[in-house]
Amino acid sequence: xxxxxxxxxxxGESVELDIKPSExxxxxxxxxxxxxxxxxxxxxxxxxxxxxxLNGLPTRxxxxxxxxxxxxxxxxxxxxxxxxxxxxVQESFMEKGAVxxxxxxxxxxxxxxxxxxxxxQPSKEEVIRSISSNLCRCTGYKKxxxxxxxxxxxxxxxx
Length: 159
Ligand code: FES
Ligand code: FES
Hints:
By secondary structure, this protein is an alpha+beta fold. Helices cover about 30% and strands about 15% of the residues. It contains five helices and five strands, in the order ββαβββαααα. The N and C termini lie far apart (about 40 Å). Mean pLDDT is about 95; it is low at about 155-159. Bound molecules: FE2/S2 (inorganic) cluster (2 copies). One FE2/S2 (inorganic) cluster binds near residues 42 and 50.
């Protein structure tokens, strides 16, 4: 079967991969690079649990083919902390109790991070709209929205 050479920057590190055409970014991250923070919920682009930042934009990694991503930058939840110092969005989710089973949390945090990078002071409506397609079966969203709002005062825009 035909294979593709793909270079990616994942969490600041350069990786070179030999990829079959059908391999999704989620498979690459979880199965090859052992970055299992991105969760495989539906595999259909519907739940948001696999969300990563692809060139800074929140992207459902289960419906993106790695073979098409040569030269791209990917940030997963594992790349968000600065050493042992958590990103303000991660801190805020912990402080506000916005995590229960945690399955949706990596995708939710990366979606929130992308929002705060482009708008450091979003309204509640903007927060709700931004996370509305990331599904959470546990928290009822109230604490997640509170966590993103709390992080908005401490988050430093990166773009
Ligand atoms: S696992 Fe990708 S959107 Fe559900
Ligand atoms: S915390 Fe369980 S799905 Fe969101």
